[in-house]
Amino acid sequence: MYITPALIATISILIHFTTSNCCFGLKVALFSTAGITRRNIESLSKRRMSTTTISSSTTEKATVSSSVLNEFRSKLSSLGLDAYLIPSDDPHLSEYVASAYGRRAYISGFDGSAGTALVFDNSAYLWTDSRYFNQANQQLGSDWKLMKDRLVETPTIPKFLADKALAKYEKDGIPLKVGIDPFVHSNSFVKELQEGFIVSEEKVVGEVVSLENNLVDEVWNDRPALPSSPFRVHPLKYAGMSVADKISLVQEKLRKEKAVLLVFSALDDIAYLFNVRANDIDCNPVGLSYATVHIEKGATLYCNPDKVTSADVMKHFTDASVQIAPYDQIIEDLKGIPSKEKVWIDCNKTNFAIASLMPKKQLLDKTNPIVYMKACKNEAELEGMRLAHLVDGIAMAKFISWLEEEVQKRPVDEMEIHEKLTAERAKQPGFFEPSFPTIAGVGSNGAIIHYCAKNDSLLKKLDLTQPILIDSGGQFEYGTTDVTRTWFFGSPSDISHEFKDMYTAVLKCNIMLDTSIFPENTAGCAIDAFARRHLWLKQRDYGHGTGHGVGAALNVHEGPMSISPRFKNLEPLKPNHIVSNEPGFYLDGKYGIRIENLCEVVSLDRKEGDDKSFLKFQKITLIPIQKDLILIEEMSQEELDWLDEYHLDVWQKVGPQLEDGSKEKQWLQRMCSKIDRKQ
């Protein structure tokens, strides 16, 4: 449905100014999106961006009692709201967030990284994708209904709310009022909500209500403090391009688009642009900030002053002529942009409060150029990523050889497995932290795709009777790793033929994608089926994507490309992309299997007379794949050759780094030996 500017202007948005310390509320009805932000966003931002008004107490992510949910609903009622949306996001729409922004986890009890809660006065819903169906079913209480996102029978949130609004309007003639925090929803999502409420020019059945305070914060008494870790310089030898050169490239793009300013909100974009890293979010080396690049005046970083106090960081920014401003000053600076100047904002990656500062006629809504620069690694970044995977291979050889030996003596619980693995990685030079919370799922826990072990009733111990799925990675100064292997340390004859059959199918899927050759400008969705073929032949499948981009000493999940069946993402795979290859199979209540390598996308030599280039994958993960779980009769000779060649590469690169005669080198040699083709 095409929405005209005149029709948009008829949408009534209510802004409620409420505080926990005041007994009054100011209610203002406005009739244009631009009007909302230009009149009220500065006041709103000063309250919402403050780092001094939040308790520093720590909070467990546990199921909130019905009494707290009732208190939350009382807040809804007092504001005249019918519903309130609680996403996973922080003001920068991050995939993983600092604990202070774990509002959806707090109110619902579901602590997966993706999901949106919707609370009504007498019902509550949680949308999440297939990675988390099992986990959500276990964590959500009886007050909540799981909405299995992306299934055909599950409506999207905008469609669900539009239907609710229409039903309410037809029943009593009153629009449905849905409250939001405008700093934690993308501009494009809010626009979709608004448009869904428009039945005709005369009939608007719902209203999006932006609140000054996040409503969850008003019932979250011990909310953690906002993080304020200092920035550190990411060395040029690993970044491969200076800050000044990156800013110049952005300015060239601004000239081409005839825009004067580009606004950055995504934290990894900002870290990449300025060659800095921080620790504001666990496992993600980023810091809370905004940034802008002006076509003439250069770059400005908006952040807490405590983040740039060290001499080397100050010199780093000074040398690149980067201005430093307070975090919340971005609101005032954007409001001061002359009305005739075009401002570039990626509305899919920017919150509604920030993006709405720009009237439509002033706004260039387009993916920012840093997204593409960051995805296509330069040679220094590629070398850093290769080094990270070499040291990761060393750490994993030491860890798995220990685990295999230890489990012969005693059961080892999943939390100890995580701790020991992290400790081995920490011994490697340049290690900072895991790149995501380790997934170590024994037996049925392996079927929980993003399982994270805790000291609770789900915690299992690994013994000789159950397999374990271990998905883990490290953040090193020079690169980021992500690898999954499925292991079984009992006698191969003690595990079921069904398990071996599915393990073999998953490996065949991995090999089929790894060996694919495809033309340039091919989107990931066009080759996703290659990684599913051998599971489909058995009428099996997996619910997650096959591959994601990976940052260079940055976030473990990075766009814009992916390998998945989501046909909306048509971003082509390009040389110097790094993507994962991770097919899997999960049998609820029994086990999970996943085999994951990271791969570079590389160009093949163009054949004479061809007018098209072709691409392939080149593995950078250096960790062996367990051979005695494979059904040899199901493998082709080419697939067995692939396995032997991969293990030879692992042995030749990792073996020399291990001490002669050590148990880890003996283990690696055994794991990388040629497979017995006569089994």
- Mean of all residue-level pLDDT scores: 90
Q: Looking across the biggest beta sheet, what order are the strands in?
A: 2-1-10-7-3-4-5-6
CATH topology of the largest domain: Creatine Amidinohydrolase
Largest sheet: 8 strands, mixed
| CATH second-level architecture of the largest domain | Alpha-Beta Complex
Which structural traits does this protein have?
alpha+beta, Creatine Amidinohydrolase, Chain A, domain 1, eight-stranded mixed sheet, six-stranded mixed sheet, 33 strands
What does this protein structure show overall?
With 679 residues, the chain is of the alpha+beta class. It has 20 helices and 33 strands. It folds into three domains: 5-218, 3-Layer(aba) Sandwich (Creatine Amidinohydrolase, Chain A, domain 1); 232-375, Creatine Amidinohydrolase, Chain A, domain 1 (3-Layer(aba) Sandwich); 379-664, Creatinase/methionine aminopeptidase superfamily (Creatine Amidinohydrolase, Alpha-Beta Complex), CATH 3.90.230.10. An eight-stranded mixed beta sheet has the order 2-1-10-7-3-4-5-6, sandwiched between helices. It has a six-stranded mixed beta sheet with strand order 16-15-14-12-17-18. The longest helix has 28 residues, at 379-406. The protein is globular, with a radius of gyration of 26 Å. The N and C termini lie far apart (61 Å).
